[in-house]
Amino acid sequence: MQKSHQHRSLEPSIGFLHEFSDYQTKQSLVYDLQEPYRWIGDVTVIEALESGVLDLKDFYFLGDDYRYRLEENAKKTLSILTQRTLQHRSQISRINLQMGHRHTS
Fold first, then answer.
1. Buried b vs exposed e over 55-79: b needs ≥16 C-beta within 10 Å?
2. Distance of alpha carbon 94 from its chain centroid, rounded?
3. Exposed, middle or buried, 54 (CB in 10 Å: 0-12/13-18/19+)?
4. How do residues 56-101 score in pLDDT, each as one tens digit?
5. Domain tally for the chain?
6. Looking at residue 52, what DSSP letter applies?
7. DSSP-derived secondary structure for 67-94
8. For residue 58, which of 22, 36, 74, 105 is within the disulfide window of CB 3.0 to 4.6 Å?
């Protein structure tokens, strides 16, 4: 995302949803452009925690910025699960489109 907007000469510090802040990042636009896709990560993490694929032991807290981090193996697992979530949602969308077309013909 970051390289994409830099290539198009967009100013990364000017966002419309996220404000510029010294304590977080100066890349407000990057966060704005990621926002429509946030649900994918949310759904994947919630499903992983509810199913027991991820657990509290997969997270650690540095304390320097009040954010939890994922252990390396958990990152790999989450990456695979995210890909599966996207594939599954894509299949559902295709089925819905096909059913919609069937009903309109």
1. eeebeeeeeeeeeeeeeeebeebbe
2. 21
3. buried
4. 899 988 877 778 889 999 999 999 999 988 888 777 777 878 887 5
5. 1
6. T
7. -EEE-HHHHHHHHHHHHHHHHHHHHHHH
8. 74
One DSSP character per residue, 10-39 reads: --TT--SSS---SSS-S-HHHHHHHGGGHH
Residue 49, phi then psi, degrees to nearest 5: -70, -45
Structural domain boundaries, residue 76: 2-104
Residue owning tokens 């077309």: 101
Q: Which residue in this structure is represented by tokens 């010294």?
A: 22
On whether the pTM is more than 0.70, the answer is no
Which amino acid type is present at position 73? N
Residue 70 DSSP SS3:
strand
* Distance from C-alpha of 26 to C-alpha of 32, rounded to nearest angstrom: 12
